[in-house]
Design a protein that fits this description.
By secondary structure, this protein is α+β, with helices and mostly antiparallel strands. It has six helices and ten strands, in the order E-E-E-E-H-H-E-E-E-H-E-H-E-E-H-H. Helix content is 31%, strand content 28%. The longest helix has 17 residues. InterPro entries: Acyl_CoA_acyltransferase (IPR016181), GNAT_dom (IPR000182), Ribosomal_N-acetyltransferase (IPR051908).
């Protein structure tokens, strides 16, 4: 995009013509080939999520999240009840279509319809879905709703800069690193320097094509292993 010069000789941003604020994400399912995302329902999903998260015996999956781990079911149920009522963050449960079980959840948050900006976060994937096709497809479905259905301009990913797996996931999924916000927040009694990543609407068509090519059944062998990496397929198509 080119910078414009106003009548005072000052550089200003490019025009956003006929902008209309986006709709907020609806509480409706998102269906893929391996997973379905449903609005969080504690009565429906609670037992599955408790069992799925219990597979993480060390509590490792909770280290960089602001909540958890939960030692008692009552505290977990109370958290799910509060999450289900929340509009921002807006929680979706990930259902594995092969088993029919809830295996994790993720959210839209910092929802800004007026500026067309939205973040994905609270990504809480149990060991049952970590490093799976379903975990990748869940992220694709979240992106597709934001850009294709709702017309947002910017999609954000933020994490503790010490969370190397999260930063690697952001890069793999097509996000661009934008910088470090030092001493941005505190959680669990410690500092967090926050790494920022984003995808813009202008980048989405190439990223979407990379996801769609990666998700094709032909990209997986008989044991479900990928033949080509997602990052390379995105890089080829985003230009």
């Amino acid at each position: 995009m080119t910078t414009r010069i106003n009548n005072l000789g000052q550089p200003i941003g490019w025009a956003v013509a006929d902008w209309t604020p986006c709709e907020r994400p609806p509480r409706t399912p998102m269906e893929g080939g391996t997973v379905r995302l449903e609005p969080l329902d504690p009565a429906k999903h609670g037992d599955d999520l408790w069992a799925a998260f219990a597979a993480d015996e060390s509590g490792r999956m909770w280290t960089y999240l602001p909540v958890g781990p939960y030692a008692e079911r009552a505290a977990f149920d109370a958290a799910l009840a509060a999450n289900a009522k929340s509009a921002d963050p807006l929680f979706f449960t990930v259902i594995d279509l092969a088993s029919g079980k809830a295996v994790g959840f993720c959210t839209y948050l910092r929802i800004d319809p007026g500026n067309g900006v939205i973040e994905v976060g609270f990504i809480t994937f149990s060991p049952l879905m970590q490093r799976s096709t379903g975990s990748t497809e869940a992220m694709y479905l979240m992106m597709a709703r934001v850009f294709d259905e709702l017309g947002y301009r910017r999609y954000e990913w933020k994490c503790d800069t010490l969370n190397a797996p999260s930063k690697a996931a952001a890069a793999r999924l097509g996000f661009t690193y934008e910088g470090l916000f030092r001493q941005a927040v505190m959680y669990k009694g410690r500092n967090r320097d926050t790494a920022w990543f984003s995808i813009l609407d202008s980048e989405w068509p190439g990223i979407r094509a990379g996801f769609q090519a990666w998700l094709e059944p032909a990209n997986f062998d008989g044991d479900g292993r990928q033949k080509r990496a997602l990052a390379s397929m995105i890089a080829e198509r985003r230009g």
